[in-house]
Amino acid sequence: MSPRQLVETVDIGSPSLSPGGDRVAFRVERPSIERNTYDTVWYVQRLDDGSLPVRVAEGGVPLRDSAGLPVPASAVWSGDGRWLYYRALIDGRIDVWRAATDGSGTTPLTLDPADVQAFQLLADDRLAYSVGPARAEVSAAEQGEYERGIRIDANAPTSQNLFRSGLTEGRLATQRLGFWFDRVPLLAHRPVQWVQMDPGSGEKQHLDAAPASQSTPALSELPKIWGEPFKVAREQNGRRVAFLARRSASEGGREIRLVAAQALSAAKPAVCDADLCTGQNITDLQWRPDHDEVVFTVTDAEAGMAQSIFRWNLETGTVHLVTRADGLLSGGRDERSACGVSADALVCVAAAAGTPPRLEHVDLTTGARRLLFDPNASLARAVAASGTPWLLQWADAEGNRFSGQFFPAKAKGDKPPPLFVTYYKCPGFQRGGYGDEWPLAALAAQGIAALCINAAPFQATAVDRYSTGLAAVEAAVALLGAKGEIDPARVGMGGLSFGTEVTMWTAMHSALLSAASTTSPMLSRTMYLHGSLKGQAFYEGLAGTWQSGAPEDTPAQWQALAPELNLERIDAPILMQMPEQEYLWALDYAIPLIREKRADVYAFPHEAHFKFQPRHLLAANQRNLDWFRFWLLGEEDADPDKHAQYEVWRSMRDAKALAATR
């Protein structure tokens, strides 16, 4: 089992059933390390005859949000089932394309001077789409800034290169700050324009406003008596809506309610009061076509983020289990994404800790599941050959319950194997924890047991969140140590974002770790300096997230949280593999640690919060594997290209040994 095999995992997403329910369209995303890109393809597959999927279109460069996460792709069927409409970035432009569902050809439809941001297929198969400023106008504005100088204001992303350094839109582009530290394109403040076109004639006309959505009423229109609505679905070809509302714990009652209404103004909406849909973490819902039923998904954190799918019958009020999975059964990697649905069946992407993504058909009446498409069959065999992960459940001393996916390892010598831990989110197939940078199966294959822990429910204060994470790790180490599964004296830890924060907190507030690995910055004085340029919006976020003000105003909180004020408490050597957009915020503590030979730091060009370039992901995974083998097993890869890497790490080990004698 190698890091490369895990990085090359093929993803499946956005299953969509045809109007007749006899075919499914879906997109496949395959990483190419050689070309440092992704190949995406749309397929259509019949559900009734066991036929193979038909390749109908290229999907283009995956679109990403400003954090680097993929934007869910979607395809819309024409009413007669002959065409698929989808948005794609091809040849440097984002258009709406149309593909024949028999695989006979594709056509770009919009051919607009600006990139298409969203689209709808209207009832008569006319197309409505939205655009911002033209590509040429954006490019000219970027070049103009380059020549005149870029003004530093509240929206300048000062932690990255200011000219064409963002790669999330398929090209190197100049970015600005939006909400918090989200990035947006230059000229993103310009108003969006809606255009309607006839795909047959190509005739276009500009619209004064967005057309009324046929599927998703605005959340603001929904009643709030059951809590704050956060997800809504409209019945296909009907007037009813169903939605999920969340009531906070402080408000009392059950956290999430499932509600359906005949219309937004209906006086007596139906509320699901059955035990199977109350007190549950409902993460998705949709109407079952031609039935008086809502299909909904429950994601169970105590079961390791395993998902179950249910049917709620509005006429009888009863809820029926459709199926339970060991992992995700959804529309892709996101546990909140929807399976494709027809009157009789679901088509879902199934993935569990040791099972890579595959496409499955689920009978809505019997719950029977059958395989449709498995692009990761060889990877599944390799994972199975290297060992089967299992669900670990435990509680800390305060009674907080946790779950995680544990990858056992074989001992080398007379001691149990060491342990690597990552803490945050562990849904579906486990490539490398949240962020895909710590190759869990590869670590286990090399003799290091690995555990991915699902974080506790959100807590209001940073100290409580971090302390709960530390308690979860300590309790897991004690449990696995008592079982003889791991050596509690050799523990490594790593994580992204909140996972980085809990890793650093563990390093600062315990003697548990022998080595650590991070990829995100912590709250630091440099981060405060950069963020203060945003003014009140940053100060409010700082107070809400970390209960902090300026360092001089809240010194006790800064002393508790900031790594640069706690360097003497950190004993574990730290590998930092950070995106170029964020590494500057860590220099308060990274530079002293580098100078004292206590950290090895890398920055990855053009990367956002989540790394996504395949070569960067491979490099990060391989270096993490090498790092923990070095510190937890005392092993080095014989590859001569890694000589310089090990020279640095040996000097760190020598410095650590010398410091221990003082």
Keywords:
12 helices, 5-stranded antiparallel sheet, 8-stranded mixed sheet, Rossmann fold, alpha+beta, globular, 35 strands, Neuraminidase, 662 residues
Summarize the structure in words.
Among the domains are: 215-378, TolB, C-terminal domain (Neuraminidase), CATH 2.120.10.30; 388-524 and 562-660, Alpha/Beta hydrolase fold, catalytic domain (Rossmann fold). An 8-stranded mixed sheet has the order 28-29-31-30-32-33-34-35, sandwiched between helices. Strands 23, 24, 25, 26 and 27 form a 5-stranded antiparallel sheet that branches. It has 662 residues and is an alpha+beta fold. The protein contains 12 helices and 35 strands.
Give the end-to-end Cα distance, rounded to a whole number of Å. 41 Å
Helix content: 10-25%
What's the number of extended β-strand segments? 35
Rounded radius of gyration (Å): 26 Å
CATH homology-level superfamily of the domain at 388-524 and 562-660: Alpha/Beta hydrolase fold, catalytic domain
The dominant shape is globular
| Unreliable segments of 5+ consecutive residues | none
CATH C-level name of the domain at 388-524 and 562-660: Alpha Beta
Give the CATH architecture of the domain at 388-524 and 562-660: 3-Layer(aba) Sandwich
Oligomer state equals: single chain
By secondary-structure content and strand pairing, the structural class works out as alpha+beta
| Total helical segments | 12
Biggest sheet character:
8 strands, mixed
How much of the residues is beta strand, in percent? Answer: 25-35%
What is the strand arrangement across the widest sheet?
Answer: 28-29-31-30-32-33-34-35
